[in-house]
User: What shape does this take?
Amino acid sequence: MNGLRSSTLGVLALTAVVLTAGCERPPVESIQRGYRGTGMVQVFNPRTQAVVLDRNAAPEVTLPVPPGGPLAKDVYKNVKVLTDLDVGAFTRLMVAMTNWVSPEQGCNYCHAEGNLESDVVYAKVVARRMLQMNRHINQDWANHVGLTGVTCYTCHRGQPVPAFVWFADPGPPQAAGLTRGRAGQNTPAVSVGLTSLPYDPFTPYLLENRPIRVQAAGALPDPKTNGGIMHAEWTYGLMHHFSNSLGVNCTYCHNTRSFASWEGPPQRATAYHGIEMLRDLNANYLSPLKATYPAQRLGPLGDAPKANCATCHQGLFKPLAGAQMLQDYPALAKVATLVVEAPTPEPTVQGDLVIIFFAVGSFDLHAAAPSAMQGLVEKLKANPKSRATISGYHSATGDTASNQELAKNRALAVQGALKNAGIADNRVVLERPIVVQANVSGEDPTARRVEVTVK
Ligand code: HEC
Ligand code: HEC
Ligand code: HEC
Ligand code: HEC
Assistant: This one.
């Protein structure tokens, strides 16, 4: 009797376990993102969220190195992409790349032992293209990645092959005859959140430019605006991938009143740029690497590994929880700001204050400086007891001693110009150089200035 009862309880307990195995243990948290009652809510499970956040922690920043020194392309033999970096910045990036992509294997994951210039290892050839792709993302896709930007770590997370890549998918092997022809769907697939939707929505939407549409724009199916039922299914497949990759519900991007309407959360527009970005990366950078990879890296249909939303996002709506790694690695940011200099601004006169600007690393006086100082010189001559004070500024980036030397030489150049105009050296006071905090790009023209005034 007793035995029977406990086994019945056992069965009941087992049934309960089986029935709830597919669910997540409560409590879950919800965040309201629109009016109550409209379903605009995000549901998070704090426990699974903790795992995702753990996976998305940013790595430690590689020690910075002071700028200056010769360019890497002039010192090494085979530098084709990082031609704008000095040796210090180049080496720092090599160290960071090793930490991000091949921390266990080290430099020789990409380099032939004892021959750094050689291109025989395919990983180095791939990495060179990755460098171009990474800069291209940060430079040309700011409408998606913003100032947060991406580094190799965003996708690689300490592994040579990122955790989430995709290939064209022929589906599971199937018998011939009547059961043939799954039409690329009807089997639970991880790529589309274990639904039976088409398991490869990536080829049509993240490589090719097919319209992502459910609602027809016209009465009849039109391949330009909507491709019929197949596109509706592909679209839902892709949307499941979006939700899973970002760890969000559909309402993170849509107002469920109308899925097609753009009058919803602004995140949908960001996602739209993400789709366009991936089409560009997959078609122009990742697919063409097919010829470079060894056979075991290619997919079942012989195509190269490609990226989707999960490659960067890895379960969070901002990769690495929004950590702005790019700030610490300007070598992967815009190329333009590193090589193109803004022209030196004209001197400005503000009453008794004259501000004279200089070119990067130079103490040559601007041609317009003497005429800008003319009023000041007249004032000094009219009042023999007055004195001119000169203060130099320099940026906080770079070597302090050489910055101070430069600031001093600039002040002396201005003193020389005053002497030419008839103001003796003993009427000029030189003040200590003042340090100006650098801006993000590291070069601020207002830091390269000298101010002159009458006291
Ligand atoms: C993930 C791949 C990768 C790793 C890891 C890597 N490198 Fe490189 N390395 C490259 C690429 C790509 C280039 C060529 C860059 C270019 O063309 O602008 C390069 C070029 C170089 C060069 C210039 C060689 C020449 O003569 O042209 C040196 C030096 C170098 N790396 C040092 C290192 C050191 C030291 C390490 C380890 C701390 C390292 N690299 C790790 C990919 C890598
Ligand atoms: C947008 C995501 C993304 C970024 C950013 C990115 N990679 Fe990759 N990388 C990939 C994908 C996808 C592959 C293909 C994986 C494979 O080889 O199977 C790959 C492959 C590689 C490989 C070949 C590994 C192998 O063994 O096949 C190297 C080396 C590499 N990347 C280096 C880099 C470096 C260095 C950077 C930063 C300058 C970088 N990647 C940035 C997505 C990215
Ligand atoms: C990260 C943002 C994001 C998430 C999450 C998301 N979507 Fe979308 N969805 C988009 C974007 C962007 C488009 C438009 C693509 C285009 O026009 O090229 C779109 C298009 C659609 C369309 C097509 C509308 C039309 O014009 O026919 C439907 C339907 C849709 N999504 C449903 C869903 C469902 C259901 C979910 C949840 C499973 C979801 N979406 C999750 C961003 C998102
Ligand atoms: C190359 C890496 C990369 C890929 C691939 C990528 N994203 Fe992003 N995404 C980012 C970064 C970085 C940010 C953070 C931008 C910021 O902080 O402004 C971001 C932000 C977003 C946001 C805004 C989140 C918010 O709350 O403001 C959405 C939505 C988004 N991505 C959707 C997508 C979708 C959908 C895809 C696939 C079609 C995708 N992303 C592919 C890197 C990527």
Observations:
- Confidence is low (pLDDT under 50) at residues 8-21, 336-340, 438-442.
- Residues 97, 101, 110, 123, 126-127, 130-131, 134, 150, 152, 154-156, 160-162, 165, 286, 293, 297, 305, 307, 311-312 surround heme C (ligand 2) (CB under 6 Å).
- The CA atoms of residues 110 and 121 lie 6 Å apart.
- The beta strands are 29-32, 41-44, 348-350, 353-357, 388-395, 428-430, 434-436, 449-454.
